[in-house]
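F.,

This is the one I mentioned.
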């Protein structure tokens, strides 16, 4: 591991302190976990997985308007 120094707002420091007390984890461990999670969430693989999971989620809904008809109304002639 590499040592790094960071500055936190008072709000972040207090929240981190409460979370450490609640979970029984060290503040440094919580910070490392948060950084790892942020990096993972911003990765291309994660973004692709989220898009794939969302694909077609409205396909069986019957309460939505006819989008093809709406788009046709917007098209210029």
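My design for it:
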């Amino acid at each position: 591991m590499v040592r790094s120094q960071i500055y936190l707002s008072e709000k972040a420091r207090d929240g981190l302190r409460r979370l450490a007390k609640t979970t029984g984890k060290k503040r440094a461990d919580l910070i490392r976990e948060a950084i790892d999670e942020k990096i993972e969430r911003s990765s291309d693989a994660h973004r692709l997985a989220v898009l794939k999971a969302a694909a077609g989620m409205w396909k069986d809904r019957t309460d939505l308007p006819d989008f093809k008809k709406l788009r046709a109304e917007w098209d210029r002639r």
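The mean pLDDT is 92.

Talk soon.
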